UniProtKB/TrEMBL annotation:
Assigned keywords, A-Z: Membrane, Transmembrane, Transmembrane helix
Family annotation (InterPro entries): DUF2798
Short name of any one Pfam family annotated for the protein: DUF2798
Keyword Membrane in record: yes
Membrane-spanning parts: 9-30, 42-64, 84-105, 125-144
Protein source organism: Anaerotignum lactatifermentans
Protein name in UniProt: DUF2798 domain-containing protein
Amino acid sequence: MPKNKRESLIYTVLMCFCMVIWMSMYHAVLHNGWNMEALRSGWMGFPLAYICAMCLDLFLVSRIAKGITFRYLVKPDSSVLRKVISISGCMVVFMVLFMSLYGALEVCVRTGAWNSLFFLWLKNLPVNFVMALPFQLLVAGPVVRRVFRMAFPEGTVLG
């Protein structure tokens, strides 16, 4: 886990990149099938989604998730693993809520079907959640934490 604000920012950039590129490709494949158009579509949709996700993470979701985690889910003496899983789970829940709305807004902007915004958002929630939670807990979280600590051994990034 990051130990100071600089480490936290670096970690957030890495984790957000990993999750957003994966979810962008996931949605592109869902809508286009397995082909080059899906890769192009996922890659083209990535930058704006990444900026949105970074802003959400930095200014809103991280605070909410950590607040809930440390108030209700873990105690100061809880294991690091329990803290990591609790924060990751809360982050996924709130990021899925907001990024599913982002996806629904993106469709409405493209199609002009604003009357379907709420239903698109509701439809996106389970589709995103069933991919984001396992990917975060089983792949992205462990890989990003390992890469982060290999690149920045504990105590090398000054606060």
